[in-house]
Amino acid sequence: MTTATTKPYDAEEIEAARKLFEGPWDFVWASTKIDDLPPMVGQEIAFAGRSNVGKSSLINALTRRNALARTSHTPGRTQQLNFFRQTDDAERLTIVDMPGYGYAAVGKEKVAAWTRLIHDYLRGRSNLMRVYVLIDARHGIKDVDGAVLETLDKAAVSYQVVLTKADALKASEQQFMAEATYDEIKRRPAAFPEVLLTSSEKGLGIPELRAAIGRVLGERS
Ligand SMILES: Nc1nc2c(ncn2[C@@H]2O[C@H](COP(=O)(O)OP(=O)(O)OP(=O)(O)O)[C@@H](O)[C@H]2O)c(=O)[nH]1
Ligand SMILES: [Mg+2]
Fold it and tell me: Fewer CB within 10 Å: N-end or C-end of the chain?
């Protein structure tokens, strides 16, 4: 299900995107500092969002790998920028799993360091084609999310909002949250005018998210 003013994804696009994500994915790099990023190769996309929103799980669902990105019930699992690449055709696409923001229990200093890293990376990566900002479908956009959207808008980095954990909501609630979220982002300058609803657990919206990514890569390659 999507809420959008964009063209729907047809069967052909969905199939092409399925193929795009086939093939072996591998972890290639981890960065804890902005001066320690891997060289830019091909096109990059990144997944950002609050701690525990389901970034690592969504990357595993997209790549059909159970444990490519490490997930956890405990917030704060991902503590660095993790870079994943297709090793059969390495020039194609790099996926970046980001530390979650907005999680206070790891300590103020760590939170500040992560937040700086996230914002610096998002502002300064020229092969970053689009950032997927994940929002828990049960909670909607919070202030900490707003700050990240603001950074992206100011830096003119294209982003798309993706609702996660849709399985935790009834169909009517899913539609309501998708529409409410769309209303919040539709006037933001760097936001792609579509909100995707996903569940990594149930596979909901995953083919569509692949297709959305396929479009982005196709546009600029
Ligand atoms: N119900 C439901 N739970 C999910 C879904 N995706 C992830 N989760 C759960 O949410 C928790 C966090 O998932 P992660 O993928 O580790 O979240 P993250 O955003 O990478 O978290 P950090 O790395 O700590 O920022 C885990 O307990 C997952 O099982 C989903 O689609 N539905
Ligand atoms: Mg994670």
Answer: C
